[in-house]
Amino acid sequence: MSNSNDPVMRQVLAEQNPSQDRSPSPMTFAEDMETRDKYVVWDGTNEEAYADDTTCHDCIIASDLEPISVQELRREMLKSNVVPTVVFACKMGQSAFEKPINGETRGVFSYYWNALLKHDPTVTFRDAIRQVNIFMQQEGLEQQAEVICRIDILDMPVEEVSLPNKAHVSMILDICRTNKETVMNETRAATLQAVCSLLRHPGNPWQKELQDFQARAEAGEDIIVEVIDLLSPNENVRRWMREQIAPSKAGFRGVSGYQQLPGGHSIITASHSWVCPQASCTKSLPVIQEGEDPPVCEVHQVPLIRRNS
Ligand SMILES: [Zn+2]
After folding, report:
1. Which among 39, 186, 192, 291 is least buried, having the fewest CB atoms inside 10 angstroms?
2. What is the structure's pLDDT at 179?
């Protein structure tokens, strides 16, 4: 799967790498990997060579509507002359811990990471990982962060990575790591659920297509891409779908350096959606067309109302 056809990916790469022509003769991806661009994994104690085909250093983030693999994102960046550094809050199969800090639930790793950078703006990736892991250990947390980066970047200040002729991007991922299959299964289930909800929307113009999707999904077919293709031209439906599929399911919390990545945490603003008047009910549907009749809550059998902010 290549993400270069993904409009989000193209946008990210274009923003991170505005002038690809700056380097007179950029190395090919293969040359780059074989020569000076050696990547390492550092967990605060051990430094190991990084094999790009590993499945042990992957996780899935929500990119718009589709979950994408961090490793796929890394490879796309490398091909586009962007040097990626990925910081994981924990090892594969471990949880990323959260706790309430100043009345807000936050990732323990990112809390310490940000505090450390504030205290010492010149700290290197090597030291930052080592120190944050010591903090987490002192809290009694069995969570060990690690960084995957080019070997020379390990000893550069986190906030001052500077590379001749190349752009650099840090992805700080304070999320539970999981394998792609788990996320895809959850996404398929959430997509089917969204299709079933839309079928109950009286204003939906895709009744026949959605019924077809429903039947095929129930028969085990993967319909995600087709559903997105059909529905995403309608902005309200697209936002609603994103809300149904992305939050928590893909473990998205924050990707530093990726503020432009519209994944997971977008909130539908007032009047773009219908919600149930029962306060405890979480059912919602998108406004497909202004002036349409309100859909009915499938749980409470009452007309939905326009959402207030
Ligand atoms: Zn309801």
Report:
1. 291
2. 63
